[in-house]
Amino acid sequence: MILAFAVACAPAGTEAGTPVLGDDRPSEPAALARTTTAVVTTVAPNTARETSTTRPRRTFTMAFTGDLLLHNRVNATAAANAAGDEYREYDYESLLAPIAPLIAEVDWAVCHLEVNLSADNKRLHPYPVFRAPGDVAHDMRRIGYDSCTTASNHALDHGARGVAETLAVLDDADLEHTGSARDPDESSDGIWIEPAGVSVANLSYTYGFNGFSVPSDKPWLSNRIDEDRILADAAQARSRGAEYVVLSLHWGEQYQHTPNRQQRDLGPRLLASPDIDLIIGHHAHTVQPIDRVGGEWLVYGLGNLLSASTQATRRDELMVQVTVTETVDGTFSTELRAIALHLDPRTLTVHRSDPAARPSDVDPRLAAALDASWARVTAVLEKGTGWTELDLGS
């Protein structure tokens, strides 16, 4: 793979440029903090195709979680967790240990990386231009994640060199990536996987870059939301053999449970395309409803996964697991399971909030916080058109 290192618009002290502040701000002081992308990998061998009337129906599962927004306190906690470990400087794995079994049980798990990463855990930078320890990528892989979407408003925080370094870290951790790219060849591939022999494409886009611009000579650096472009990319993925297309969108208003006009208007139009099967949303840092549109799922926002937010609603989270099954006519149907999560503000550990899925020996104070989180998340989900069909399975 060719690495193209070039200078793009970026913050003073790294590369030229000035970011727009007031975005993804942590709740406590001094917080720190992959266009059609693709990498080809195989989960299960893709055997010779037979007609849908003679072969068993293929089925696979995927999981999606919220934003990795690595504030200073998250990184400091991970460093403390790694104290005495001679093999790593940071331990993020323990923060996600309670939900690791949910990640391990699917065929393909996708994280959403909102920050740039450091290959040597140095030159770290807090909000508003994040650069976080690369150890997080290796921990996500150990937990069971297979790929990350990287198109976000922070994708260009450190310019083209930041994109290149971040993707190199993900490569080193054996995590596929989609949403940003180091060169035109990488950007034209997208991300391709083949769970159960089904060809799946994942495309990733963001609403913007906090005042930074994609350089005119590097339009492939990261994907920006554009309806015509997305539809063309999805159609191209279909023409190249994709049987199922997942669209990941970094969009919406921060800290708002209600989808904004762009989400409400654009989401259903995109999902109406025969080339798009599922939409997964990020960025709002709060849980948003899930709609059912024409028999397909539109997940407006999953909230965060790891962050240092102190507001309770910003610590409410969702994981969605999808089960995709081939139908008799060769198309695919999708069942969706929404799993409510909550981040413990004391330990920054992520837990399931569903009372029916909770260990009996959970600390009473944490149990009370999980009960409150469960009530808030289900109240938000009840506002979506997909509520009556949602599986909140324990």
Walkthrough of the structure:
This protein has ten helices and 16 strands. The protein is of the alpha/beta class. The strands form three sheets. Strands 1, 2, 5, 6, 13, 14, 15 and 16 form an eight-stranded mixed β-sheet that branches. The protein has a single domain (59-389), classed as 4-Layer Sandwich (Purple Acid Phosphatase, chain A, domain 2), CATH 3.60.21.
Number of DSSP strands?
16
Shape: globular
**Content-based structural category:** alpha/beta
CATH secondary-structure class: Alpha Beta
Mean pLDDT across the residues is 88
Total discrete domains: 1
Poorly predicted parts: 1-22, 28-52
CATH architecture: 4-Layer Sandwich
Compact description:
With 394 residues, the protein is α/β, with parallel strands linked by helices. The chain is built from ten helices and 16 strands.
